[in-house]
Amino acid sequence: MDFKMIPVSNPYIDIKDLRYFKKLFKSKILTDGFFQKKCEEIIKKKISSKFVALTHSCTGALEISTLLINLKKGDEVIIPSYGFVSIANAIVMRGAKPIFAEIDPQTLNISHDDIIKKINKKTKAVYVIHYAGNACDIYRIKKHLKKKNIYLIEDAAHSFLSQSRNKYLGTIGDIGVFSFHETKNLVSGQGGCISINNPKLKKRVNFILDKGTDRYNFIRNYKKKLISSKVRKYYSWVDYGSEYRASELTSALLYSQLLKVNEIQKKREQIWKKFKNCILNIENKDFYIIEPLVNTKSSYHLFVIIFKDQKKSQKFIDFMQKNLIAATFHYVPLHKSKMARKISKQKLSVTEKIFRRVVRLPLYPDMKLKDQKKIMNKIKEFCHGQY
Ligand SMILES: Cc1ncc(COP(=O)(O)O)c(C=O)c1O
């Protein structure tokens, strides 16, 4: 008998990843070195971006985005309430106000129609999340925002290498951000990156990434970190900023992950599709699954089902966990949080009705076949039984 819980996510790492740490330790360059630069080059090329920088997290990349678009007091920013707290924090830390928008119940992505309703003269930006690896209605949203000169930022934390109309998510709006946190498709411990697509926003990014200094202009070559005594120049404080760059340790792990990215994505896709086929064959089920829109390509980050009834979803989670399968809920709407209640009292009926009915199933590249079979059998058992 296997008494270990099947986890909801599991990083695809093994002992071979250590070889890059050995190289790194030998080099003794632990910041801004080979691995950071190499990852930036690989990602930039892979997603056809105009600018990519690795960051210590997607949260950090979101903070950079708010500095780049000069968010300030009096500005409003539309964001999905059904989302991660990092966007909301980045906005309020600049003194701006988050305006929470509804989601589309089919995809759990931000609702295009609700964005339109919430735009006014104060709206400076819209942040979308491409939830679960699936593109939101990005081109329709972009078209509308362009007319009004409103920035579009894509939180593609779940969606590295996902596409919409053959363009990579994170490269369609003005700025895109990604996560390489332990729970994501590619992992670097904690890590992320920012992609800048609007050339006007590129000017200040290296200052912000380097704690508000113009250090980057002096130390471009990681091998020549020492500034020659003949160069009578210093770098100094020129802008807002913080320590946003990724260290060489995390970059070395990400480098190793990038070398096997196709394998990782393929395995996720196969597991996701097997779950879908199993579920399609279940009659009279009380839930539906969220799926990629037409003309898009998913990164298959999450397998999410939505129950018609809140009590049923809780019963399902209990049943699966009793059977050592870590099925679990996801986001709690931000507009209902203690922090958000201090700044607004919005009501979002779709989001409020749906969030307790959302369940995530385990999904990770090296899921054993016997574990996936167990999960599928338990789903069938639940659907056919009197639970
Ligand atoms: C949509 C979304 N954005 C941002 C983040 C934050 O990512 P990180 O942990 O890399 O800061 C998360 C974390 O799960 C997320 O789900």
Describe the sheet with the most strands.
Answer: 7 strands, mixed
Name every ligand kind in the structure: pyridoxal-5'-phosphate
CATH level 3 topology of the largest domain? Aspartate Aminotransferase, domain 2
CATH architecture of the largest domain: 3-Layer(aba) Sandwich
What is the domain total for the residues? 2
Q: Report strand %.
A: 5-15%
| CATH class descriptor of the largest domain | Alpha Beta
Tally of strands: 13
Low-pLDDT stretches are none
The backbone outline, from C-alpha atoms, is globular
Count of discrete alpha- or pi-helical segments spanning 4 or more residues: 13
CATH superfamily of the largest domain: Type I PLP-dependent aspartate aminotransferase-like (Major domain)
In short:
With 387 residues, the chain is an alpha/beta fold. The protein is built from 13 helices and 13 strands.
List the helices and strands and how they pair.
Layout: H1 18-27, H2 34-46, E1 52-55, H3 58-68, E2 76-80, H4 85-92, E3 97-101, H5 112-118, E4 123-129, H6 138-148, E5 151-155, E6 163-164, E7 167-168, E8 175-179, E9 192-196, H7 205-209, H8 248-259, H9 261-280, E10 287-289, E11 296-297, E12 303-307, H10 310-322, H11 338-343, H12 349-354, E13 358-361, H13 369-384
Parallel strand pairs: 2-3, 2-4, 4-5, 5-8
Antiparallel strand pairs: 1-9, 6-7, 6-11, 8-9, 10-12, 12-13
Helix pairs in contact: 1-8, 2-8, 3-4, 9-13
Bound molecules: pyridoxal-5'-phosphate.
